[in-house]
Amino acid sequence: MRMPKVLTAARVRVPAQHETEYVNTLRELSQFAEARGQRIWLFRNAKDPRLFIEFSESPTEMSHRAQASRLPEEIKLERRLQSIATYAPDAWELWSEVSVWPVAP
């Protein structure tokens, strides 16, 4: 049986002068995440160019970016993100995957 994945969906407001640094920092963080089987996606709001949403997916709750122990370099990148962007209060709520496909007998 496959374990459900977990996800966070974080709304993030990024000032125009920090957008390049924000995207580059998230790209660096994504490289660490991919090395351990995690994914990070970034989307921009169509009506508000300063509003982004980060999706962070992990195979398990304990390995998720919101909870896992990480390398000092990753912690530094997360702190940089927090200093240049404003995350919504519910940014680190974990969501668990629900299968919409029938379970095989």
Overall, the morphology is: globular
Number of helices: 2
> Which band does the percent of strand residues land in?
15-25%
Q: Structural class of the secondary elements?
A: alpha+beta
Distance between the termini: 11 Å
What do these coordinates show?
- The chain is 29% helix and 25% strand.
- The chain has helices at residues 19-35, 72-84, and strands at 6-13, 39-44, 51-58, 86-87, 95-96.
- Strands 1, 2, 3, 4 and 5 form a 5-stranded antiparallel beta sheet that branches.
- A hairpin with a 6-residue loop joins strand 2 (39-44) and strand 3 (51-58).
- It starts with 5 loop residues before the first strand and ends in a 9-residue tail after the last strand.
Summary, kept brief:
By secondary structure, the chain is an alpha+beta fold.
Task: Spell out the key features of this protein.
105 residues; alpha+beta; 5-stranded antiparallel β-sheet; 2 helices; 25% strand
What is the topology?
Layout: E1 6-13, H1 19-35, E2 39-44, E3 51-58, H2 72-84, E4 86-87, E5 95-96
